[in-house]
Amino acid sequence: MTWLRIEDDMLDHPKWRRALRAGGDTTLIVWWRLYSWCARFLTDGEVPSDMVEEVADIGFSKVRARALQALVDASLLTRRDDGGVSLNDYLQRNPSKATVLADRERRAQSEKNRRGASSVAGHGQSGVPKRVSVPSHPIPFPSHPKDPPVVPPPAEPERSERGADTRGPVWWQYPKGWRWSADTASAAHIQGVSLTELQEHVDYWTTHEFARPVTDLDAETRRSLPNIVKRKSTQAYKQPKHGSAQPNAGKTGWENAPPEVEFKS
Question: Are 53 and 59 within 8 A, CB to CB?
């Protein structure tokens, strides 16, 4: 396939204006059929006599015959003595047959060289890698440094070491005589927890172990304030009357607390 070269202002040329006035729009169709036929078969703008009417598709059409004559009268075509026509200025805008064939040969040789380079690199013309022979002796792999030894975390203190009177970095229960800070008392007041209820909470967890180790008793107490409020709403803090004949008289009420009130963060 060969590309055609024409100017974008071709129809503004005086030759084309005269041809279109004489032959109408069909003039452009006839000229284009002759022009593209020459480019396809590399005739350098020459149409033989036995192909003029066939290429121009004149047949019995007087309109196309008049359009062909208008192109000749406007000097866009030249009738030869043998009956053929020549497209004027064709070689000024388009390459000759020799130039096109030389360019095709150059591109074919370039593609051949590219495929040859790919074959040397280990790929055939189909793009599939060629089979490479594998040596019989094993190929040594580079050695990698060993991973550093894993250091186990420090062992957790045994239960026997979690005494109620022992102060250390980890707490499993409130130590006896522990007192909350002013910030914790202020937070309890804001959430509606009285100091008495706060003391009951501390007293209970002084004799019971937390569900997990605690490192900051004040912070853990503040986190437990919502649970205290929740237990108040479910009457978990209901105190028995003093001097009554009930079996739990004199107890704080924590002994019968439901399981969900266990100290949690």
Answer: yes
